[in-house]
Amino acid sequence: MEYTKDFRERGELIAQLEARGLSIQDRDAALKFLTRVGYFRSGAYRYVFRELLPPSEVNERLRQYRRDRYVPGADFEHVVKLEAFDFRLSRVCLEGLLDFEVRVRAAIAHTLAEKNVAAHLSEDHLDKQICRQSIGDKTKFDAWLNTCEEAVRLAAGDEDFITHHVLKYPQDPVPIWALIEVLSFGKLPYLFDLMEPADARHVARMFGFVHPRPFASVLRMMVDFRNTCAHGSRLFNRAFKRALVLRVHETEGDLLAHLAAPDFTQAPKPHQRLYIYAATLAFMLRSHVGGSNWPLTFRTQIRKFNVELMAPDGSRLISPEANMGFPVDWQTLALWDKGTGSSV
Question: Is 135's pLDDT higher than 80?
Fold first, then answer.
């Protein structure tokens, strides 16, 4: 199939949207919005206002589910409001994720340093069986050593504490509490995987998880979540690539028990939507000894969802429940109340 779409100026694109049924009251404001956001990116927010195709016309292979026509009542202002809400939501989520990231770094560094200041560089202080597993043409431990060396090399010119150590103690490895500050968040799951089971369990329990294995999976998902927010990508109506599935026995207390129900939300792909990711983040921050007010901040932002448009059947066309995986009664759950301490 040949790609036939041509470049169009923003004014032409605005006219095309109007021709397809999207009401535009202020063309100058619409032009500024498209200049700031971009036509293609705005399409992610316009998409939910397009008419659904009848089942007979849906093309699953090409992911075609909607017409080019917009539903009656759809207005460009709805798109603007939705993008603004999503932008602020991303900043709120990033705040919680950065807090979590700092806490995880501290937890891993302290747990390993208690054994040895360079425990991260010795199989004797890590899980030997995991360390010796193959990854490509080397072991996981060898790959990890390369990661550490690269992190120190890149940081030596920018971070004074690394430069100081390298110059003053050239024969000694950078201690774990310093190294972990220059590792990217995306590398932390690899170190966590190499930790001895007892050490990994200790870290997991600091965040409300009984076992390290599900926490390791969640850690990777939080990396995906953080990257999505940090790169300015859309959260509204997103299905993350990794499905987050939690079982009741895997976490302490019952704050996440509602996620075990198969019908906890009406949204499709419920285990890949924002709610389950945000709920798990809220749980981990609350479970940590430091406590957190972030769940309340997140709840406040979701309450600001202000795009009101009714579908032909009389239901709300878009909502946190339908598009982001929120349970209908989510605001009544203890997870989102004013408590900030441990959940256990």
Answer: yes
Instruction: Identify which of 230, 343, 216 has the alpha carbon closest to the alpha carbon of residue 279.
Output: 343
DSSP count for the chain of H helices, then E strands: 14, 4
Q: How far is 155 from 148, CA to CA, in rounded Å?
A: 11
Is residue 96 within 8 Å of 282, Cβ to Cβ? yes
- DSSP state letters, 62-77: TTB-EEEEEPTT-BHH
Give the Cα separation of 305 and 299 in Å (integer): 11
Confidence (pLDDT) at 342: 44
Is residue 2 over pLDDT 90?
no
* pLDDT beyond 80 at 271: yes
**Domains of the chain, residue spans:** 10-74, 83-336
CB neighbour list of residue 180: distance below 8 Å, 6 or more residues apart: 105, 108, 109, 188, 191
pLDDT score of 26 more than 50: yes
Cα gap 265→330, rounded to integer Å: 9
Q: Is 23 helix (H, G, I), strand (E, B) or coil?
A: strand
Residue type, 282: A
CA 257 and chain centroid, separation? 21
Query: Which residue type does 275 have?
Result: Y
Strand 138-139, strand 134-135: pairing: antiparallel
Q: Which residues contact 323 (CB under 8 A, 6 or more apart)?
A: 48, 236, 237, 267
Element (H, E) at 139: strand 138-139
Tell me the two tokens of residue 195. Answer: 């930790």
CA of residue 316 relative to chain centroid, distance: 26
